[in-house]
UniProtKB/TrEMBL annotation:
Residues 1-28, 661-709 are annotated as: Disordered. Residues 688-702 have a biased composition (Acidic residues). It comes from the Eukaryota. This is Glycogen [starch] synthase. Residues 12-28, 677-687 have a biased composition (Low complexity). It comes from Patiria miniata. Keywords: Glycogen biosynthesis, Glycosyltransferase, Transferase.
Length: 709
């Protein structure tokens, strides 16, 4: 017909209109452009209606599905809501059955879908205990959990078959690798039986996404047994890379020089390394979580990843709309209470001029950059002293280590502080009552009679009790083998013992924070909100959830260009420093230069005014949308599409003008510079645009609502 457009053109125009409407909601989404829905790929966010029509199924396999072990649990759990929004019940997660976790997190039931039920019944008839349920998290995803012990009787047969097919031998003493063999066989067994439930005329599109080496055997068997499915393998950190970095090797400068088989054999992980490398090699689509890990995988696993899948967060969980500044002030007051008790007797600094820095994570002294952080704190202490600054920095190190109890001095300090608080509160109530009674009688209160002699004696007792002969402890617990503990040894070497003349104080808390902690009753999220700066100068960090969590809570952070998060921000934010994302160069600089750069970052931050810090927190929180799974889930959708293209090229075509790369570039802010050193190249020029006016309005509101240093 004249004047009419082809159906495909109309479909594309409607898709573009939908994308434009979705992308106009904020500056972040405007930068995402066509990445948010991938409508032309058929990946509709309709809770699985489109996937059901296409007979498309997704199995997400990971050892940490409903089983908290490490960071992959956070990835799977936080991503579930977006995955279910797209795929609904067409997506099923598979993991091991752990009774303790299942009782708390999973609602067990029988599956409604006959295909799933048929595959489960087939396995049950062979003695395998397999459970179906709903994971009690956002999205309410369906999960299939295998009892690993029920497959133990098949272990010897499965190990022999694996060796015959792939020449990968698993030693009997490696229980974790044996569990991986059982788990992988059970997963591939289920996928094969699930495929058999369809009629011969049906052509289901099955995608199996395997995370990490522990699930890699399942992927290997899917290929060796020619199971009709498209496979994706995601490595969140290479096994060999983590071991090499733990040994303090010059890892990144020697990536292409390692004898891989020898290095894996020397560390007793050759069989695990073979499992991981085979999974990466055989996968239809190989992915990883960051560009820095992609470079590592290219050398250690001998395959360049097809895609990078950045880790996101469920921002709704962390973001407190328009109230995060108030939450910062409230949470900071809890930290104030702890600091008052910890430094009793040496409480000679002004909390209104005190900043709280922190680092946290697994206790990997070198990998997590604790050595660089402590060395930089020593330099920061010197810079603050020679400049005559009145600012005090209290640096927290939150690393779980082996301890035998709380430090007696730490407990005593908190008890004394609490006693003082109760004593002063009682005296305050008595004085308030006297003033009230006097005013009611029409008399001015006699100031000489407000404080009774008994009250004066009580206050003097408090003052004497507050005195302590020694310095405040640098550690809140009694650490086992403290003479060889790397953090405590480093603190002794740099001489930061919380002296009165030190402008940097150190508190090492060798235990994760919880609200039930008798010493410091504050959960981790609340603690992060109360701090001013998170410092994570990691040497080996495939992604880095800790700085990402800081960002979505509006807390500035320091990362490095050797961490996935740091690389992501460098790539997608025009001027990260202006948004409170400081990135230390640990890739192209010598260690001393990196230490000096970090010290300079922390010093510059300590010299910001209160108004500048509020403005910077507003900017930092604005980046939270960039880390939301609603934005980053598109990468997983593209990986699934690419896997289908590899196995069904006649059905799915690749049309990507950018050569497979999806880029985001968040613009430089155009408001007042956050740094006191206006000559720095990274500082944006002042402007009077709408963004600046919005920031100033937010800043004025925050100043009225909160009393914050």
């Amino acid at each position: 017909m004249a004047g009419s457009s082809p159906p495909t053109s109309g479909f594309r125009s409607q898709s573009m209109m939908r994308m434009q409407r979705a992308a106009s909601s904020s500056k972040i989404q405007r930068t995402l452009g066509g990445l948010d829905m991938l409508d032309e790929m058929g990946m509709e966010m309709d809770r699985g209606r489109t996937a059901a029509q296409e007979n498309r199924w997704v199995f997400e396999v990971a050892w940490e599905v409903a089983n908290k072990v490490g960071g992959i649990y956070t990835v799977i759990r936080s991503k579930a809501a977006v995955t279910m929004e797209e795929l609904g019940d067409q997506c099923i997660m598979m993991g091991p059955y752990t009774e303790a976790t299942v009782k708390m997190e999973v609602e067990l039931m029988e599956p409604e879908n006959e295909l799933i039920k048929g595959a489960m019944d087939s396995m049950r008839s062979k003695g395998i205990k397999v459970h179906y349920g709903r994971w009690l998290i956002d999205g309410y995803p369906g999960v299939i959990l295998f009892d690993i012990s029920s497959g133990a009787s098949y272990l010897d047969t499965w190990k022999r078959d694996l060796f015959d097919m792939s020449r990968i031998g698993i030693p009997w003493h490696d229980r974790e690798a044996n569990d991986a063999v059982i788990f992988g066989n059970l997963c591939s067994w289920f996928i094969a039986d699930f495929r058999k439930q369809f009629e011969e005329s049906d052509t289901p599109l099955i995608i199996a996404h395997f995370h990490e080496w522990l699930s890699g055997i399942g992927l290997i068997l899917c290929h060796l047994r020619h199971i009709d499915c498209s496979t994706i393998f995601t490595t969140h950190a290479t096994l060999l890379g983590r071991y090499l970095c733990a040994g303090n090797t010059d890892f990144y400068n020697n990536l292409g020089k390692f004898n891989l088989d020898k290095e894996a054999g020397d560390r007793g992980i050759y069989h695990r390394y073979c499992m991981e490398r085979a999974a990466a090699t055989l996968a239809n689509v190989f992915t990883t979580v960051s560009n820095i890990t992609a470079e590592e995988s290219q050398h250690l696993l001998q395959r360049l990843p097809d895609l990078v899948l950045p880790n996101g967060l469920n921002v709704v969980k962390f973001q407190a709309v328009h109230e995060f500044q108030n939450l910062h002030a409230k949470s900071k007051e809890k930290i104030h209470d702890f600091v008052r008790g910890h430094f009793h007797g040496h409480y000679d600094f002004d909390l209104d001029k005190t900043l709280y820095f922190f680092t946290a994570g697994r206790y990997e002294y070198h990998n997590k950059g604790a050595d660089v952080f402590l060395e930089s704190l020593a330099k920061l202490n010197h810079l603050l002293q020679v400049s005559g600054s009145e600012v005090t920095v209290v640096a927290f190190l939150i690393f779980p280590a082996k301890t035998n109890n709380f430090n007696v001095e730490s407990l005593r300090g908190q008890a004394i502080s609490q006693h003082f608080k109760e004593t002063v509160s009682n005296i305050k109530d008595k004085i308030g009552k006297k003033i009230f009674e006097s005013i009611l009688r029409g008399d001015m209160p006699d100031t000489d009679k407000l404080l009774e002699r008994a009250d004066t004696v009580q206050l003097k007792r408090c003052i004497y009790a507050a005195q302590r002969p020694g310095l405040p402890p640098v550690c809140t617990h009694n650490v086992n083998n403290d003479s060889s503990d790397p953090v405590l040894s480093h603190i002794r070497r740099i001489g930061l013992f919380n002296n009165s003349h030190d402008r940097v104080k150190i508190i090492f808390h060798p235990e994760f924070l919880t609200a039930t902690n008798p010493l410091f009753a504050c959960d981790y999220e609340e603690f992060v909100r109360g701090c001013h700066l998170g410092v994570f100068p990691s040497y080996y960090e495939p992604w880095g959830y800790t700085p990402a969590e800081c960002t979505v809570m509006g807390i500035p952070s320091v990362s490095t260009n050797l961490s996935g998060f740091g690389c992501f921000m460098e790539q997608h934010v025009a001027d990260p420093t202006s948004y409170g994302i400081y990135i230390v160069d640990r890739k192209f600089k010598a260690p001393d230069e990196s230490v000096h750069q970090l010290a300079r970052f922390m010093y510059d931050f300590s010299q910001l005014t209160r108004r500048q810090r509020i403005l910077q927190r507003n900017r930092t929180e604005r980046l939270s949308e960039l880390l939301d799974w609603k934005s980053l889930g598109v990468y997983y959708r593209k990986a699934r599409y690419l896997a289908l293209h590899k196995t069904h090229p006649e059905i799915f075509e690749v049309r990507d003008e950018n050569g497979g790369r999806m880029t985001i570039r968040y613009p430089r802010p155009a408001s007042a510079p956050p740094s006191p050193s206006s000559s720095r190249a990274s500082t944006p020029l002042p402007s009077t645009d709408d963004e600046d006016e919005e920031d100033e309005e937010d800043e004025d509101k925050d100043e009225e609502k909160t009393k914050e240093n």
